[in-house]
Design a protein that fits this description.
heterodimer; A: alpha/beta; Rossmann fold; eight-stranded mixed β-sheet; B: alpha+beta; Beta-Lactamase; seven-stranded antiparallel β-sheet; five-stranded antiparallel β-sheet
């Protein structure tokens, strides 16, 4: 049975898209068929990590939501587009359903909104069409209809936070909302943790504060900052602490943790 | 290279340089001093020699002069004696016998008393018939006395070798008292020859060389003719002036001042010989050995080497102690810096160094203070990090959550999600539905 895994954060800049791409690629490397859907229609970004520009996008999620095409048409095989020295997975696949980067279409979404029911159908359809084992949803930060929907239908919810006072309150709200949606598995990931902080201590404190397990404490890495969004980090630096943290997330997601 | 090695090397190099420079100056000064001393000694010898040479030439002359005067006295007494004896009719044989008794018993060796014609009818030499002649070709020596017969009152002849028997004789004569005649006395002047021999320049030269202080000596006149020379075997001193000495001798004779030169191990000193009027009449050149100079220098150098060895040894030892004293606290400071970096710094580790009253002690105190500040700051930072509390306003959170969960949309969504999930699971597991 395929799993829907939305990745949330209360605020922007937590590294949500980056973690989504890395966890997805790592999961695919374990021989799974993986999909990523960028539901952050207002500020799309994950396509850049796979080196996609608007010219490579004939169709985007926006087209499906407005009934211009089927969801399958918006899915692109990005298995080979991760970059880096690691070879592409032999068994697994990575499909990306990007959001449009065209300003006009972004503005239209903001003005008119869309029927989240259609999105829900789309998620189901694409899982079936591409025979996905896992569908990762890169959501818009904060809590909105589409976020709530993705949580409501999810199997696993990954909430990303930074060790920053600005994140603590919002994350607590997100966790509680997710709980009330009866999410089967709810995990926290602490990202961009400065080297001065002890990972074990952070895990302990976060788990005590939020009452849910912390999957990984990912370091704030200068190497990662340098790479930016130009490639999937764990393919470039498979031995980095960040990549090891991602591998652990993939383990838990695929039921090997 | 460690700081300690650098200090030791630097100090050792400085010491070796200083010691070598001092030893070199020392050896050079010693050489110069000894050479100067030798030169002074040589000058004294040469001066003495030149003065003695003048003196040695004078003494036999003066002695001969004195003998000559004495002989005139003897001749005068004889003249008076003969005049008296003849006036009172003493026969010539008796007169001759008296005079012979004088010759036999005194230093007087000969007498010759002539008549007006110059015939020596009274003489100490029995059986010799001699008549004075005015002709120098006939009598190269005796002719000089002819003038006593009619002109001069006395005449003293220089001592000279007689043609007849090669003996050195000195003759003096006076004119007769009673009538024109020659009264001549003769003296075997071998003593003058001895005196010349003993006091003369060759003897001087020989004595000087025999003393062992001089290798060789040459005495020349102002025409560079060698008057006397002597040498130890193997040295270049000869009856003629050695070519390489000629310029020095010329310089000495022309300037009247001594000249000294060092040729190999031989110091040559030339000094002028002056006469009574301070006119340069010749020169003396002496060769002095300088081996003792070199052996003295070698002794000095050996001593210098020993002293140098002691100084360098003491210096190295001092630098070892000094470098240890300087570098050990620096090593402690370096260790402390490393410990600070490794977060294992113990402020007590620098107590000993910080107790010093010098710059290093000051540095250690400043370092300890700084390190403690760094540690304190780090500790504070760690505490801050640890105290990074996750502050959640639960009241606010509850309100915010409620705002969402109690909304109609949420309730609808939740219900729909349930049905959707159920649908999905029924689709996936049709048997369960």
């Amino acid at each position: 049975m395929s799993k829907i895994i939305p990745i949330h954060s209360f605020r922007g800049g937590t590294g949500k898209s980056n973690i989504t791409a890395n966890v997805a690629v790592t999961t695919a490397h374990r021989g799974h068929r993986v999909g990523i859907i960028d539901t952050d229609i207002q500020s799309p970004g994950i396509h850049a990590i796979f080196g996609m520009g608007s010219e490579q996008m004939d169709h985007a999620l926006n087209d499906y939501l407005w009934g211009k095409c089927s969801i399958e048409k918006t899915a692109y095989d990005v298995t080979e587009r991760g970059g880096g020295p690691c070879p592409a997975p032999t068994q697994g696949k990575v499909y990306l359903i990007p959001s449009s980067v065209k300003t006009g279409e972004i503005v239209r979404v903001l003005r008119e909104g869309y029927d989240v029911g259609i999105l829900n159908d789309g998620l189901r359809d694409v899982i079936d069409a591409l025979k996905l084992d896992y569908l990762f949803i890169d959501t818009h930060p904060g809590l909105n209809e589409e976020t709530l929907l993705s949580m409501a239908i999810s199997d696993i919810v990954l909430i990303i936070m930074r060790p920053d006072q600005q994140d603590y309150q919002g994350t607590a709200v997100t966790v509680d909302v997710a709980r009330s949606l009866d999410v089967p598995e709810l995990y926290l990931i602490v990202n961009k943790v400065p080297s001065g902080l002890d990972a074990g201590d952070v895990t302990k404190r976060v788990e005590e504060s939020y009452g849910i397990p912390v999957l990984s404490v990912l370091p704030l890495s200068e190497t990662m900052v340098e790479l930016g969004s130009a490639g999937v980090f764990c393919l470039q630096y498979p031995d980095h602490r960040f990549s090891q943290g991602i591998a652990h997330i993939a383990d838990v997601v695929t039921g090997n943790g | 290279m460690t700081l300690r090695t650098q200090i030791i090397l630097l100090v050792t190099l400085c010491l070796v340089f200083a010691v070598l420079a001092t030893a070199a100056v020392w050896a050079w000064t010693a050489r110069e001093t000894i050479l100067r001393q030798t030169e002074t000694d040589g000058l004294i010898i040469a001066h003495l020699l030149s003065r003695t040479a003048t003196f040695a030439e004078k003494v036999p002359e003066e002695a001969e002069e004195a003998i000559g005067a004495q002989m005139i006295v003897e001749a005068s007494i004889t003249a008076h004696l003969v005049a008296i004896a003849e006036r009172y009719g003493m026969p010539p044989e008796e007169i001759e016998s008296h005079l012979r008794a004088i010759v036999d018993n005194t230093a007087l060796d000969e007498f010759w008393i002539t008549d007006e014609e110059g015939h020596a009818y009274l003489t100490s030499e029995q059986g010799v018939d001699f008549t004075f002649s005015p002709n120098p070709e006939v009598q190269p020596q005796a002719y000089q006395f002819w003038s006593l017969l009619h002109r001069d009152s006395s005449f003293v002849q220089d001592a000279r070798r007689r043609e007849i028997d090669d003996k050195i004789f000195k003759y003096a004569g006076v004119a007769g008292i009673d009538k024109p005649r020659i009264v001549q006395v003769g003296y075997n002047a071998v003593i003058l020859d001895d005196l010349r021999e003993r006091l003369g320049l060759p003897q001087l030269a020989e004595d000087l060389v025999a003393s062992g202080n001089v290798l060789s000596v040459q005495i020349v006149n102002d025409r560079y003719v060698v008057l006397a020379y002597n040498t130890i075997p193997g040295q270049a001193s000869a009856p003629h002036v050695v070519q390489e000495d000629l310029p020095h001798l010329q310089a000495v004779i022309e300037s009247g001042k001594p000249v000294s030169t060092l040729r190999g191990s031989v110091l040559k000193i030339a000094t002028p010989i002056m006469d009574a009027d301070s006119e340069v009449i010749g020169a003396v050149i002496v060769y002095l050995p300088t081996e003792h100079v070199w052996s003295s220098i070698q002794d000095e150098l050996r001593l210098a080497a020993l002293v140098a060895l002691i100084i360098v040894g003491a210096g190295v030892l001092t630098s070892l102690i000094l470098s240890r004293r300087v570098t050990r606290p620096i090593a402690r400071l370096t260790d402390a810096a490393g410990a600070l970096e490794a977060n294992t710094f113990d402020p007590d580790s620098l107590t000993e160094v910080a107790a010093r009253q010098d710059e290093i002690g000051h540095l250690a105190r400043v370092f300890t203070r700084m390190a403690q500040e760094v540690q304190l700051r780090e500790l504070r930072l760690k505490q801050e990090v640890r105290q990074m509390k996750i502050e959640i306003d639960h009241t606010q959170k509850l309100a915010q959550v409620a705002e969402i969960t109690e909304s109609e949309y949420f309730q609808l969504l939740k219900a729909r999600a349930r049905s959707l999930k159920a649908g999905a699971s029924s689709a996936a597991n049709p048997v369960e539905s």
